[in-house]
Design brief:
By secondary structure, the protein is mainly beta. The protein has two domains: about 70 residues, SH3 type barrels (Roll); about 35 residues, no CATH class. It has two helices and eight strands; from the N terminus they run E-E-E-E-E-E-H-E-H-E. The strands form two sheets. A six-stranded mixed β-sheet has the order 4-3-2-1-6-5. The protein has a two-stranded antiparallel ribbon with strand order 7-8.
Length: about 120
C-alpha cells in the first residue's frame, strides 16, 4: 500500500483504508472522533465487515493521505469494540434552498433532509 503524505487528524478523509500492524486492511475511516473545544483527537470510527468499530488514538501509529496505520494485531483488529455514545445526525439545510418543487415543499412542510452519518 502506498505511503502517502503524513496528515493531521483534521485532514483525514472518510473512506481512507485502516490497516493493522501487519498491514492487513480491516476497514475504512467512517468518522473522526474529536473534542473540538480542546482541539483533541480521540480516535476514529472504522467501517468494518462486522459493523462500526472504535480505534482509540493510542492505537493509531500513522495517519497519511492514503492509509491509517494502527498498532493492532490482526486478532485485536477483529475484536475491536463498537463506538459508544449517542448517534450523530446532521441536517443538510442547503437541500431546502432554491426554487425547485422539492425545495418549496421542504420549506412548506418544514422537513429538512436529515442525513444519518452512521449509514
Amino acid at each position: 500500500m502506498e505511503d502517502g503524505t503524513p496528515v493531521s487528524y483534521l485532514g483525514l478523509e472518510v473512506g481512507t483504508p485502516v490497516v493493522s500492524a501487519s498491514g492487513t486492511r480491516f476497514g475504512e475511516v467512517h468518522h473522526v472522533l474529536q473534542i473540538p473545544e480542546f482541539d483533541l483527537f480521540d480516535g476514529i470510527s472504522v467501517k468494518t465487515a462486522h459493523g462500526l468499530r472504535f480505534v482509540d488514538r493510542e492505537q493509531i501509529t500513522d495517519i497519511t493521505t492514503t492509509v491509517v496505520r494502527t498498532s493492532l494485531t490482526d486478532d485485536e483488529a477483529e475484536s475491536l469494540p463498537p463506538p459508544e455514545g449517542p448517534p450523530v445526525v446532521e441536517v443538510d439545510l442547503a437541500k431546502e434552498e432554491g426554487r425547485s418543487l422539492t425545495a418549496r415543499l421542504g420549506r412548506l412542510f418544514g422537513r429538512p433532509h436529515w442525513k444519518n452519518i452512521d449509514e
